Amino acid sequence: MKKIRMIVNPLDRKSHINKEIYGHFSEHLGRCIYNGIYVGEDSSIPNTCGIRNDVIEAFKKINMPVLRWPGGCFADTYHWKDAIGDKIDRKKMINVHWGGVTEDNSFGTHEFFKLCELVGCEPYIAGNLGSGTVQELAEWVEYMTSDDISPMADLRRANGQKKAWKLKYLGIGNENWGCGGNMSPEYYSDEYRRYQSFCRDYSGNQLFKIACGPNAFDYNWTEVIMKKITPWHMKGISLHFYTVPYANWEHKGFATVFSDEDYYATLSETHRMEELLTRHSEIMNRYDPEHKVGLIVDEWGCWFDVEEGTNPGFLYQQNTMRDAIVAAINLNMFNQHSDRVIMANLAQVVNVLQAVILTEGEEMILTPTYHVFDLYKEHQESTLLYSYVENEKIEGQYYDAISHSASVDKDGKIHITLSNCSLTENYEIDLGIIDTDVKSVSARILTGDAHDYNDFGEVEKVKPTEYEVKNDNGRLTVAVPPCSVIAIEVVS
Ligand code: AHR
Prior knowledge:
23% helix; 10 helices; eight-stranded parallel barrel; ten-stranded mixed beta sheet; binds alpha-L-arabinofuranose; 2 domains; single chain; TIM Barrel; alpha/beta; 492 residues; Immunoglobulin-like
């Protein structure tokens, strides 16, 4: 057991942690929407308006703050008018990006807003800039948000939704440097400016417009976007970065089959998020020192090879304690960068990539990643505090063993999240909270072998349990086992 020290300083309050940092992403991809979230009203699986009740409840439990939809690459092929009105009349299309399957458009705008309403989260619409038109996107905004007398508001009313919805987050295009049109940043910026001009604020609704940001390390993209689009026209810029072991997209390896070396290589890759957040923020600081534009990491997470026997276009992968550690590290990083990072959306929410939920027929499992979101939810809408750990590097790696962040909520409770990335080392943390009269302390832990996962038939192999933190007159001692995630709450 190695003894190390940690300090949290509640006198050093830093940035606000937006709840949207704990956001999610749902795409018309594989079994994320269909046979995942949405089973249809005639399904024998208990549902509300076709949306699985168990999924709704699970989303609510982690206080899901925001959900991005309908893609992804799919967004830039999506034509919203094909997915409104009577389901029988909705146009069918081929989902060209994901498996070439038939999309029957039975889940469209109305169904998405119903889902958000049932969960109590903000909708985040990704608009089609790549293959759509300005008119099409402008009309979608009008359809969703206008209470006036207008062709689109009338159409929405005719389709059964009398009152306009509120829509805050509007993305204008997705990965327009790639699947969204293979554009240069200069060309995209001009297109963005044109599109956003016609996405208006109707009936008291206020859009928060988000530009397509860089592919991971493409710093030039951020530079050009920040130079060419003013904060007047853009409130957020997105960033996409996936964790792939060894950054080897040809041989990503399986989600459940990996060596210790692969585990540490995965964490090595995921820690590159720190470099991305720092360097993109530096560029943004030069153009936007007042932080009017937020960095929105609207796609992140582990991307492994699909499970054997599943459709390669469906991106279905299992989820182990390795994923949980990746989630814990990234969420701590987002908290630490919350002066600039205002939203993040894990890819993707159900049955795709680093999902928080997996389903099979009527069964549903909560993955280790889900439990990390549950452990971390108290950080939502709190204030980041200074925290320091007397850390050491993982042997042979450039990153620290203990990932951490701390915050104070509106009631004055302090929340500390810790993750031990080591597979072998036990730490004992001597935790000092400055200027704080600790009245009580409680904690929960998620831990196990890095390969542990929940499966159909064994749904609770990995789940959080209550955990003891020693309190010796305000001096706290936390034992942090290998491959673990711990959430501590301190009441003073
Ligand atoms: O999340 C899967 C895909 O990854 C998304 O559709 C796309 O935006 C990204 O390349």
